[in-house]
Amino acid sequence: MSRSPMVVRTVPALRRAVDGLRARKAMIALVPTMGALHDGHVSLVRLAKRRAQKVVVSIFVNPTQFAPTEDFGSYPRTWKADLAKLAAEKVDLIWNPDVKAMYPEGFATRIVPEGPATAGLEDRFRPHFFGGVATVVGKLFTQCRPDVAIFGEKDFQQLRVVTQMARDLDLGVKVIGSRTVRERDGLAMSSRNVYLAPEQRQAAPELYRAMKLSAARLRAGEPADAVMAAGAELITAAGFALDYFEVRHAETLAPIASLAQGPMRMLVAAKIGTTRLIDNIAV
């Protein structure tokens, strides 16, 4: 039976635990999560173990990145299963604060990111989101003091925002992106996939299929406008309400029209029923 990792829930206890991990000058990797762990999260932990001697996983469902109309209250919380997964991976430390520990009474400071946070993708539909992400990740970085932090590429704009923030604020953390883990039919793994009804789950892989077909056409030199319009039609025909389906510069997230303008990333966000899914691929 795997030994359970140490779990800490207060900042003073976290500082003592991190000091202990650093006692032999070990490198520390942080994997920030909101729990409801799946194989995609496990892949982040395994990459963290390859990049550092000690691994810290945070589990905190961050209220500041949810709008009042979003699913903070119903967001899946699976503590016992999460703990078992992290024990099996031999994680060293779990940082599991409650909301009062992360945002104590009188908390009045926010990080307001720009650059990739204002690219007109997720921020166009969730204007509150990246301020909440940047603030909580900034706190996690200063609390856990990791050398590296691992984020999944599925949340690609978030990865770019966090990378920029760590660089701009000289936080001393190397942010590393990890490839998206997919189900066998191509659907990107996500904690929100549990919300999909059976017929929605059957249709959901059409997002990935449309991206793959569109990326192949772009690589073949077809005009971007026509390719993206055709891809959007495939997505809506599968039963999705599309928020965006765009191709952007892979580093800056600025709009570009061809591979000649730089590396491209295709990004999509769409709702099927009440469940909103996001995904992206390199072109």
Explain this structure to me?
The protein has 283 residues and is an alpha/beta fold. The chain folds into 2 domains: 6-178, 3-Layer(aba) Sandwich (Rossmann fold), CATH 3.40.50; 191-282, Pantoate--beta-alanine Ligase, Chain: A,domain 2. The chain has helices at 11-21, 39-51, 79-88, 99-102, 122-125, 129-144, 156-168, 198-203, 206-219, 224-237; strands at 6-8, 28-33, 54-59, 93-95, 148-152, 174-178, 241-249, 264-272, 275-282. Strand 8 and strand 9 (275-282) form a beta hairpin. Helix 6 (129-144) packs across helix 7 (156-168) and helix 9 packs antiparallel against helix 10. The longest helix is centred in the middle third of the chain and has 16 residues, at 129-144. The radius of gyration is 19 Å and the shape is globular.
Can you summarize this structure?
Helices cover about 35% and strands about 20% of the residues.
The low-confidence runs, each spanning 5 or more residues with pLDDT under 50, are: none
* Shape field: globular
Give the terminus-to-terminus CA distance.
43 Å
Helix-strand category = alpha/beta
Task: Evaluate the radius of gyration.
Answer: 19 Å
| Share in helix | 25-40%
Number of helical stretches of at least 4 residues: 10
| H and E string | EHEHEHEHHHEHEHHHEEE
How many β-strand stretches? 9
Mean pLDDT: 96
Going by CATH, the architecture of the largest domain would be 3-Layer(aba) Sandwich
> Can you summarize the main beta sheet?
6 strands, parallel
- For the record, what is the CATH homologous superfamily label of the largest domain? HUPs
* Strand neighbour order, sheet with most strands: 1-4-3-2-5-6
CATH class of the largest domain: Alpha Beta
- CATH fold name of the largest domain: Rossmann fold
* Tally of structural domains: 2
Q: Estimate what percentage of residues fall within beta strands.
A: 15-25%
